[in-house]
Amino acid sequence: MADRVLKVNAFTTFDLLAGSVEGHGFAEEAFATLNVRTARENPEDVTLELELDNVELDSVPAHADRVTLSAAEARELAAELEAAAKRIESEDES
Q: Is the Cβ–Cβ distance between 29 and 56 less than 8 Å?
């Protein structure tokens, strides 16, 4: 990824995922970085960061999206992700 907004290193949660961006009149696919971050000292929230490889995109400028979650919201998201993963696994077994 050229012109990176997020810092990507050995501690980044996922540094190469399939991503997509959709808007009015466009839809594009690109590699993506997804990271979960909290402060090292006295964390108060969880931040999810998402950046798509802007080299592969024509419709949006280089940018990163962030969502800040409370501990309860992070647990709710984790539970939803776990439930979705189980649905996929049970479908694979049938």
A: yes
